[in-house]
């Protein structure tokens, strides 16, 4: 573990559709010595697909659990991104794509979603500057963050790990806590980076030269981070208590089933029929056809479900009004509201989607 590569940052391209004020990756840096290559060189000499894939193979052999960050520039501008992601998916290589998620990039994300079986992770910028009065809509950094905030919410049901990359500076640090809270409430994890300063006169990550823009290492900043950490600990504790209560309810429910002569461990479909029948006095055969999600048009619940493979219903929480339909990677793809929940309350196990039931609840 000690001498292994754990995280690999891939600067897949220096091309980008935006020009954010703090970013030097996509611009010719003013202080660069003439003998150093310019942007033209970097855009013409990007790593080839073969080179990327061969290197991924080598790293996989070196450390099968290494995590890859595909960024740039804008990684979606690489035509071979689907090929790279397909290779990762097929070889169980862990990754996320860091994208600016802006308007121009949306068709490319949609195209990518069609070309790969799934995307493991999508990260996009949402900086606290969007909550600041000083934020200028002319700065691409502002535009990408506004777009990122809305769009990340939409991707939470489609992509497994959706993360907000928060780049914070001294002007926006006071809004960091509020932003992380907003994102958490939207089900989005946050990754926080502080704006960096330019370190060399050559090509550098950062365009920032004024150190007063950097987040200061003082008590005020420590307190902000501490508040974020305290919230996180409180959330974990609340989830732990909720889970304990849930399992207790399930235990009681299983006991009640057993007392009524129903085997709680009977095959799921039978269990489901029994409970439906028992609770609503429905005619048992009325309910059941297992939905084959692979046949075109089989999904009664709307777009996108037809090609997702074996879809299952999970009952996430007993008290929750609704069920989450998950695909076989565990990604939530659909929420079904009442009245079915009254019927299935308390069932812990995952059950096969049954067409008639779904139609009943829509
Ligand atoms: C260079 S970008 C590349 C990926 C994509 N184009 C984007 O903007 O998300 C990766 C991350 O670096 C951040 N970044 C850009 N300039 C920075 C700087 N000077 N200091 C710290 N982070 C910076 C961006 O906000 C973004 O979250
Ligand atoms: S931060 Fe990202 S979106 Fe902005 S210019 Fe740099 S690479 Fe492009």
Characterization of the model:
There is one protein chain. This protein is an alpha/beta fold and 362 residues long. The protein folds into two domains: 7-220, Aldolase class I (TIM Barrel); 268-357, no CATH class. The chain is 36% helix and 14% strand. The chain has helices at 39-44, 49-62, 81-90, 106-115, 140-155, 176-185, 219-259, 268-280, 340-344, 355-361; strands spanning 7-13, 67-72, 94-99, 121-125, 161-168, 189-194, 312-314, 323-326, 332-336, 351-352. α2 (49-62) packs parallel to α3 and α6 (176-185) runs parallel beside α7. The termini are far apart. The protein binds S-adenosylmethionine and iron/sulfur cluster. The site of S-adenosylmethionine has 20 residues, from β2, β3, β4 and β5. The site of iron/sulfur cluster has 13 residues, from α5.
Question: Topology of this protein?
Answer:
Blueprint: E1 7-13, H1 39-44, H2 49-62, E2 67-72, H3 81-90, E3 94-99, H4 106-115, E4 121-125, H5 140-155, E5 161-168, H6 176-185, E6 189-194, H7 219-259, H8 268-280, E7 312-314, E8 323-326, E9 332-336, H9 340-344, E10 351-352, H10 355-361
Parallel strand pairs: 1-2, 2-3, 3-4, 4-5, 5-6
Antiparallel strand pairs: 7-8, 7-10, 8-9
